[in-house]
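Is this the right way to post structure tokens for a design question? Let me know if I should format differently. Anyway, here goes:
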């Protein structure tokens, strides 16, 4: 069970993995995002008009920035600058703005890389649309480099209802965030791992697994497995070797 939405289209490394090793892979988000209301946003006393640039760390952040702007009747100015965590997020902006006519910058995938670009725009006042469980690393990095920014909590991450899975058992559960682990225990407070394998992507997810006294069986990224599918494949290969040796 992969705790993410099912991939769009027919191509995915998960489908390749399933076909190659005759695996059955189900997809189910353990968490989902809910936008805060315009009323709740106003209680944060964030004035959108005071900001000249936006820091966008995900496609979700893009959606909720433009949603809240519309709900509070703020017309996003044409000269607004957008600083995106990756090119994929930057390209997603095309859903809302004419890409080639806007000032859009992007990093490779980390906040550190993006800050290097932001330093060249010291006079901007940045808005950081975020979730209620924003990783400390992002604001800490911005503060360290003296970026003038304001946090605006525009959406929150909440546990999905998984009650229909109560009597369904999987050989492996794959997690991508601490929120996924929280959702597991919120839905199944008496969860016992037993022989269930647990895979985690990223250090914070791995720490959440261990903090909840669970056994971490598969961890990515690693030098030999930069992706979750690569880590699972390595685990499957090793398991097949052991079974053949017996």
């Amino acid at each position: 069970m992969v705790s993410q939405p099912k991939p769009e289209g027919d191509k995915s490394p998960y489908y390749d993995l399933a076909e190659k090793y005759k695996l059955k892979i189900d997809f189910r988000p353990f968490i989902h995002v809910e936008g805060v209301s315009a009323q709740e946003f106003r209680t944060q006393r964030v004035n959108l008009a005071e900001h000249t640039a936006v820091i966008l760390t995900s496609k979700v952040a893009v959606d909720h920035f433009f949603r809240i702007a519309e709900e509070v009747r703020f017309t996003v100015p044409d000269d607004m600058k957008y600083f995106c965590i990756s090119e994929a997020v930057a390209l997603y902006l095309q859903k809302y703005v004419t890409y080639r006519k806007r000032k859009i910058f992007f990093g490779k995938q980390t906040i550190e890389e993006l800050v290097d670009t932001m330093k060249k725009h010291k006079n901007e006042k940045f808005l950081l649309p975020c979730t209620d469980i924003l990783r400390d690393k992002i604001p800490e990095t911005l503060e360290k480099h003296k970026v003038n920014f304001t946090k605006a909590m525009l959406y929150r991450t909440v546990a999905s209802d998984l009650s229909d899975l109560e009597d369904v058992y999987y050989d492996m559960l794959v997690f991508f965030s601490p929120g996924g682990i929280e959702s597991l225990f919120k839905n199944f407070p008496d969860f016992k791992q037993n022989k269930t394998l647990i895979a985690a992507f990223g250090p914070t997810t791995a720490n959440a697994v261990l903090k909840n006294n669970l056994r971490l069986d598969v961890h990515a990224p690693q030098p030999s497995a930069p992706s979750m599918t690569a880590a699972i494949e390595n685990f499957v290969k090793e398991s097949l070797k052991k079974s053949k040796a017996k």
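Format looks fine. Someone answered above. Worth noting: The chain has a mean pLDDT of 92. The chain has two domains: 13-29+171-245, 34-157.
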